Amino acid sequence: MGGAWPSLGRTTVPWHPVAGLLEVSRRSLRATPASFEAAVVPMIAEAGLELSGDLAADLDEATRLLAAFDAGGAGEIAPFASVLLRSESAASSQIENLTSSSRALAEAEIGEGNRANAGLILANVRTMQAALDLAGRLDEAAVLDMHRALMAQQAQHVPGRWRDQQVWLGGSALHPGDADYVPPIASDVPNLMADLVTFMDRDDLPPLALAALSHAQFETIHPFTDGNGRTGRALLHSVLLHTGAIRRVTVPISAGLLAIRDDYFAALTAYRTGEVEPILRCVAEAARNGTRIGERLVGALRAVRDDWSDAVTARAGSASWAVLDLLVRQPVVTARVVTLELGVSAPTAQTALRRLVEDGVLLESTGHRRNRVYRAPAVLRALDDYAEGLGRRIV
């Protein structure tokens, strides 16, 4: 595994304004340079990696914490898997300044509400689920499927296809010359992604190092016109699942990254110069922090569920008790949702929901006699408290 990690090169590329820029003034177009410098990203499928003893120990400790959280104390975490998936997706979106209340997101999941950000975050939930579902076959098609799940409602970004135009980060919208980073030219993307897929299948690297470097290389390639960050963080989870480091639940690693956001972005920049230690340290810290964040969230939700057990007056074994477990993972429901999820009749679902309103577990949101929407304030409050605490290091 010896050898220095390869750094980026540069190539001069003629600049041709894309179609959307032709609407700006002729004067502005004349002022743009005739060329720009794009990254030449090295192949890493067979790259050697040297880890100091201290860094290797850091990665190993973080991996052990991930495995312990995933094991979840004889299955205690497993019932909260969907909540953790949704929370990780929301944190990944928050890194890119996309936020939504827990209520708006839960409403969007059942087709209620019309908040734009909630819809975007829900798309990221689907991306994360696709990343987990596809972990068994980490090939180019799987990565494209993840992006397709994320961008399905944003056709202008051609969901599920490698970009065919130049992109850049920062600087002017007219020209990449002053950008903070100019990814490789579009024609390089397919070969670079094929190389990355080969790298992700290696078994000679520590799992967390493999996931972190795969993520950093993906962000460096920037293979799509939009959605690279969210797809790339989903890919990180795919790699961890692919290696067996996690098996059952989504650890809130993006929540951990959000707490060190500036360091995380700086580490991605350092990676381009061949410095891998910063991104490895960041992901290790995010994994440690993420397990603590996840434990707190699960603890808060478990406390809510325990409180409900004392409040509910329905007989044991009735549908109301089954609805309680559903509410922990889906805190906004309708009678139709309950019918579909629990396999009960519509009258049974309506009776259970009405009983839970009487017991103070649910509030009805619409005030209508038909098509009612019910919410569990205690769960939504726990999720909002969790979201409010993101962005802080936990020690």
Question: How does this model look, in words?
Answer:
With 395 residues, the protein is mostly helical. The protein has 2 domains: 9-296, Fido-like domain (Fic-like fold); 314-387, Arc Repressor Mutant, subunit A. Helices cover 56% and strands 5% of the residues. It is built from 16 helices and 5 strands. The strands form 2 sheets. It has a 3-stranded antiparallel beta sheet with strand order 3-5-4. Strands 1-2 form a two-stranded antiparallel sheet. Helix 5 (116-133) packs antiparallel against helix 6 (140-151), helix 7 runs antiparallel to helix 8 (207-221) and helix 14 packs across helix 15 (346-358). It is globular and about 70 Å long. The mean pLDDT is 89.
Question: Architecture of the largest domain, according to CATH?
Answer: Orthogonal Bundle
Unreliable sequence segments: none
Look at the helices and sheets and give the structural class: mainly alpha
The CATH topology of the largest domain is given as: Fic-like fold
The average pLDDT value, as a whole number, equals 89
Report strand %.
Answer: under 5%
Strand segment count: 5
Report the C-alpha radius of gyration, rounded: 23 Å
Assign the CATH superfamily of the largest domain: Fido-like domain
Largest sheet: 3 strands, antiparallel
CATH classification, class level of the largest domain: Mainly Alpha
Element order, helices and strands?
EHEHHHHHHHHHHHHEHHEEH
Helix percent reads: 55-70%
First-last Cα distance:
33 Å
What best-fitting shape do the alpha-carbon axes yield? globular
The total domain count is 2
Our count of helices gives 16
Sheet with the most strands: spatial strand order? 3-5-4
Protein name: Fic family protein
GO molecular function: ATP binding
Domain Fido: 138-285
Binding site for ATP: 226-233
